[in-house]
Amino acid sequence: MPPKTLYEKIWDNHLVHEEPGKPALLYIDRHLVHEGTSPQAFAGLKSEGRKVRRPDLTFAVMDHSVSTTDRTLPILDQDAKLQFEALERNCRETGVRLFDMNSKHQGIVHIIGPELGITQPGQTIVCGDSHTSTHGAFGTLAFGIGTSEVEHVLATQCLVQSRSKTLRIVVDGKRPKGVTAKDIILAIIGKIGIGGGTGHVAEYGGEAIRSLSMDGRMTVCNMTIEGGARAGMVAPDEATFAYMEGRPFVPRGKAFQEAVERWKQLKSDDGARFDMTVALQAEQIAPQVTWGTNPGMVTSVNGRIPDPRDFKDLNDQKATESALKYMGLKPGTPIVDIPVDRVFIGSCTNSRLDDLRAAAHLVAGKHVAKNIKQALIVPGSRGIKAQAEKEGLDKIFTQAGFEWRDAGCSMCIGMNADVLPPQERSASTSNRNFEGRQGRDSRTHLVSPVMAAAAAIAGHFVDVREFDVAHVE
Amino acid sequence: MQPFTMHTGLVAPIDRVNVDTDQMVPKQFLKALTREGFGRILFYDWRYLQPGERPNPDFVLNFPRYQGASVLLARANFGCGSSREHAPWGVKDYGFRAIIAPSYADIFYNNCFKNGILPAILTEEQVDELFKRTEKEEGYSLSLDLPNQTVSDRHGIVYKFEIAPARKEVLLQGLDDIGQSLQHVAAIDAYERSHKATATMYDTVDVKYYSNGR
Description:
The complex is a heterodimer. Helix content of chain A is about 30%, strand content about 15%. Chain A has helices at about 5-15, 40-45, 80-95, 110-115, 145-155, 180-190, 205-210, 215-220, 240-245, 255-265, 315-325, 355-365, 380-390, 395-400, 450-460; strands spanning about 15, 25, 30-35, 60, 95-100, 125, 140-145, 160, 165-170, 200-205, 230-235, 275-280, 290, 300, 340-345, 375, 405, 425-430, 445. In chain A, strands 5-4-3-6-7 form a 5-stranded parallel sheet. Chain A has a 5-stranded parallel sheet with strand order 17-16-15-18-19. A 4-stranded parallel sheet of chain A has the order 11-10-9-12. The longest helix of chain A is centred in the N-terminal third of the chain and has 17 residues, at about 80-95. Mean pLDDT of chain A is about 95; it is low at about 470-473. By secondary structure, chain B is α/β, with parallel strands linked by helices. In chain B, about 30% of the residues lie in helices and about 15% in strands. In chain B, strand 4 (about 70-75), helix 3 (about 85-95) and strand 5 form a beta-alpha-beta unit. The longest helix of chain B is centred in the middle third of the chain and has 13 residues, at about 125-135. Chain B is globular. The two termini of chain B are about 35 Å apart. The interface between A and B is large, with 93 and 69 residues.
């Protein structure tokens, strides 16, 4: 047998039906659902008289529009309220498991899947959300789908798919202090461009990826979509198995050991062929800060705002010009001279325990700068929130002048009240700096949790490597 | 789904690379319960000035010459970012039947086929030429012929585009792919039996419906 990539192995193991020249029917092990992209799918199913084929493999959660403050208060946003009610009703009628906003396991869909062990190596996982790529950190094939496909998966537990091309991304070497998983993925996107991975499924490897915690690997896979590849994956290893053990949906005892033996087979064979390979050296990566209106518009913290004339391509020149106008930035400005109005540490990219611990260590005993109007910490799930509180992280943050919130997507997408006001500038640990993403006319700079924390303390971007970073893993 | 075979229509140009789906349908419109009405808010933040939702005279779709356009001419990596199908719902509801661009983001491209929109792919040079012609000639229109896989104008341009045969079939016939897939229900049953697809809960979690509903 010719050597296979991890992607090909998972693909082959999920083939339900295939005819030459046609896309295949692929089985889906886990279907994750949230309030924002599912109502039309459930409605379509109902109007056609179809049933949810596998409610037991479907998991729903309220995350996009939930309040991160007091949830016992009435929901003022009537549209959001109607969506929550629709999800509640759809789950009740179809028997789909629902983590509603009052569940103690509620959280961002891509956080709670792994946290509860719903996500397991070798699975196919889909969700009506592009950051489904997060789950690839466990050696799954996981990607975002549209609402019509959500309906298709509800009805058939399958998806019509064509094989993707494969992209190998190798990050060799040792990650310097102060450089995090977020900086690695931003550097990768900066290198390949936001359309660089289009048509591909990415598999990450190399020492700098292997040495990341599961939290870090999730950050990398999460933003794979920002480089154009729909899915990103890391082959499971001992770190993966250690993370899995004991989680609510993970088998116990002998069954767990058997599962681990199966999971160990989930890696690309030696000599497996990839359609494209990208290589980076970790030592050369510095903390990253985006300056523009997509995640590929990124530079090192010690860099400067580029000049549109630096770009050869006319389209790039125009895009840079328009991005700088939107962002209110001048070419040549050092990144560290850019003041920040608000800081957001949260989102499915960076709201896990590793992220919160690193940020808390950095701000302990310090206080947010006077010019900072708001500094938000939004844990990715209520499970993370509870654990962080057990460790006293909430106290560290609130004493430093941060707000400690309840779990949800929050200011990453601004569908609830957590919106970045017009012309204000954020240091944000989220995944998209598109125009209007965090609020109309707002200006987003994507950074790692420690870079966001340091910006909150300093009031402007700073090179976190110049802070006391002994604790920044 | 509305089938697509041939379409001729006025061209509107969005001269910008990497147009993301957040621009097509911003977040505040993701709280809908239906697929309808997204045409009015397509490109909302570019199209309207606040307060009062006044049409922005500087945004290309508001130019009088592009009113009634049904072919959207775009640049590389069109539709990147969020998976929201609200974006193609908006494109369709606005009145566009086809898009022409050098490349599309994967999820958006896929979503177009679920909504009877033809996302044609031409080379950068061809797209450049069409931008020039659209700019120069008021009322410039293009014809998209799916059976022959061509984009053509009245002045003799005929560009061939590639499309996967299965995708072409979906558009030509306006296929409901759920219905198609359900024809393979025996294969799905067999797969489930052989692979024992399950999700067993070993520890109680705070979840509703499935666990206590059956």
